[in-house]
TrEMBL record:
Gene that produces this protein: fahA
Protein source organism: Paraburkholderia panacisoli
Listed NCBIfam families: fum_ac_acetase
One annotated GO molecular function: fumarylacetoacetase activity
Protein name: fumarylacetoacetase
Keywords: Calcium, Hydrolase, Magnesium, Metal-binding, Phenylalanine catabolism, Tyrosine catabolism
InterPro entries noted in UniProt: Fumarylacetoacetase, Fumarylacetoacetase-like_C, Fumarylacetoacetase_C_sf, Fumarylacetoacetase_N, Fumarylacetoacetase_N_sf
Keyword ATP-binding in record: no
Annotated Fumarylacetoacetase-like C-terminal domain residues: 141-409
Length: 433
């Protein structure tokens, strides 16, 4: 078979795995998904590359040692703390590894299925594994590409009649974020301290953030960078993307409102950004490609691309107060509503000649949909605290309280299977005194 038909076979909805948990239509990690991550476990604390399947992880170091994984470059890239060396091998290598893993896990392939000793060496239960930040991130950029979100924020903080600034429909607006504080799902996040400008006082006070918020985003990870001075063309941009994660761009709204003029957010965003641990490849997302919203006015030439460049990814946010049994779903939306595409974001980022590197993380911007309950931040859901949310176990929220656990979930729903991201979770700890 050709490489292309092998790739098509990995996306075939009828392909099932001998790992039965992967065949559950609500499990994020179907055999059609096969996302990459970094894990360790209690028997082996060495961090290494794994692939999620059902409730298991395939250990690629063990698979290669067993002679079951053929990597063209024949380099040792799996016994690593991060995916960067693997990603740097290039798209043909990611694709080939995903195809080989799919074939080994397919129901009809006996190699692992019928060999208990080999299975014991190459599979780790997710419940017994610890997941780590999957990439070393040289740079983190955050965009602002949801028209609904930008309109809501503009209406709240500036002028409802002119909510979108004139540049918004021309530029995929973004800023350079802080890579050092990107953490993996499960890492607790401390409420930040900072300058707060209270309405009744002339000067700011110093103290703990009182308006702590989430931002529901996705992120994409650069798989092939560009050299300084050599922009990435919009029509080629997707070939530079390794895959996607869920991203919570924690935001201190009161610190933000005081500091953001004229250069944008700083301390209000730099204290933490949480990402989900598994990187879902663009190959796995391909069956869920859909048209992006119509762009009017037509973007400048360097931002144009033919065809469909959005993806149908369902998104949900839940909030669970400290020790509560039940979490409340506070938002449901979809990535397909985003006005600017990932390809346009990357083309714009590099058009000046700015270089990108393997592992760079690009946040989508808060993803808000067209309805009141599809907003991707508490700022919008509660209209800056004016409309508290009712929680399912009782109580209300305007912004996040200490001990609250926020979880982002995201998945593409196929016919009988899911291509999901796993959870992106963070609990808020009290501010440092
Ligand atoms: Ca953001």
């Amino acid at each position: 078979m050709s490489a292309l038909s092998d790739l098509q076979a990995t996306l075939d909805p009828s392909r099932k795995s001998w790992i039965e948990s992967a065949n559950d239509s609500t499990n994020d990690f179907s055999i059609q998904n096969l996302p990459f991550g970094i894990f360790s476990d209690r028997h082996n604390d060495a961090r290494r590359v794994g692939v999620a399947i059902g409730d298991q992880i395939v250990d690629l170091v063990a698979l290669q040692a067993a002679g079951l994984l053929n990597v063209a470059a024949k380099t040792d890239v799996f016994a690593r703390d991060t995916l960067n060396d693997f990603i740097a091998l290039g798209r043909d290598a990611w694709r080939s590894v995903r195809i080989q893993v799919s074939e080994l896990l397919a129901r009809d392939t006996a190699t692992l299925r019928d060999d208990a000793a080999l299975r014991a060496r190459t599979l780790v239960r997710q419940a017994e594994a610890q997941l780590h930040l999957p990439v070393q991130i040289p740079g983190y950029t955050d965009f602002y590409s949801s028209k609904e979100h930008a309109t809501n924020v503009g209406a709240m903080f500036r002028d409802p009649k002119n909510a979108l600034l004139p540049n918004w429909l021309e530029i995929p607006i973004g800023y350079n974020g802080r890579a050092s504080s990107v953490v993996v799902s499960g890492t607790p996040v401390r409420r930040p301290n900072g300058q707060l400008k209270l309405p009744d006082q002339e000067r700011p006070v110093f103290g703990a953030c009182r308006k702590l918020d989430i931002e529901l985003e996705t992120g994409f990870v650069i798989g092939a960078g560009n050299a300084l001075g050599e922009p990435i063309a919009c029509e080629h941009a997707e070939a530079h993307i390794f895959g996607m994660v869920l991203l919570n761009d924690w935001s201190a709204r009161d610190i933000q409102q005081w500091e953001y003029v004229p250069l944008g957010p700083f301390n209000s965003k730099g204290f933490a950004t949480t990402i989900s641990p598994w990187i879902v490849t663009l190959d796995a997302l391909e069956p869920f490609r859909v048209a992006q919203p119509v762009q009017e006015p037509q973007p400048l030439a360097y931002l144009r691309h033919d065809g469909a460049h959005a993806f149908d990814i369902r998104l949900e946010v839940t909030l669970r107060p400290h020790q509560a049994k039940q979490a409340s779903t506070i938002s449901r939306t979809n990535f397909k509503h985003m006005y600017w595409t990932m390809a346009q974001q990357l083309a714009h980022h590099t058009v000046s000649g700015c270089n990108t590197r393997v592992g760079d993380l690009m946040g989508s911007g808060t993803i808000s949909g067209p309805t009141d309950d599809s907003c991707g931040s508490l700022l919008e859901l509660t209209w800056n605290g004016k409309k508290p949310l009712e929680l399912s176990e009782g109580g209300t929220r305007t912004f996040i309280e200490d001990g609250d656990e926020l979880t982002l979930a995201g998945w593409c729903q196929g016919d009988g299977y899911r291509v999901g991201f796993g959870a992106c979770v963070g609990e808020i700890l009290p501010a440092q005194r």
